Structures are given as structure tokens and as C-alpha cells.
Amino acid sequence: MKNLIAYVKLSKAELSKVIFPMKEQVRNAYITVFVVVTVVALFLALVDWIMSSSISLVVR
Q1: Residue 60 has what pLDDT?
Q2: For residues 15-28, b (16+ Cβ closer than 10 Å) or e, as one string?
Q3: d(CA 16, CA 40)
């Protein structure tokens, strides 16, 4: 039981050291991730379209 109490106390102490992000930081990170994922998806779609077009020209 002593170990459990010590664990809880140490956990509380560690949680008090944690710095949680502000609302603005979370929003900025979300926007950044959304933009990067969108750009990568568009790039991959373009590469896929180019490759499938070139393959269909060769197959014809």
C-alpha cells in the first residue's frame, strides 16, 4: 500500500510540472497539420494522375 501511495504522490508531482498548450497553440498546430496533409494529398493525387495518364498512353 505504501508503494501505491508513493506512486500517486509522485504522479501528482510530475503532473504539476507539465505545461499544457494554450488554446491558440493547439489551433495553430491543427491548422498547420491540416494544411500540410492537404498539400501532400494534392501532390500525391497529381503524381497518381500523371502516372496513370502516362501508363494509359503506353498501353493504348
Answers
A1: 82
A2: eeeeeeeeeeeeee
A3: 38
Q: What is the 3-state secondary structure (H, E, C) of 1-60?
A: CHHHHHHHHHHHHHHHHCCCCCHHHHHHHHHHHHHHHHHHHHHHHHHHHHHHHHHHHHHC
pLDDT tens readout for residues 4-51: 999 999 999 999 999 999 999 999 999 999 999 999 999 999 999 999
CA distance 33 to 60: 40
Pick from 51, 49, 29: nearest CA to 41: 49
Residue type for position 34: F
| CA pair distance 51, 60, nearest whole angstrom | 14
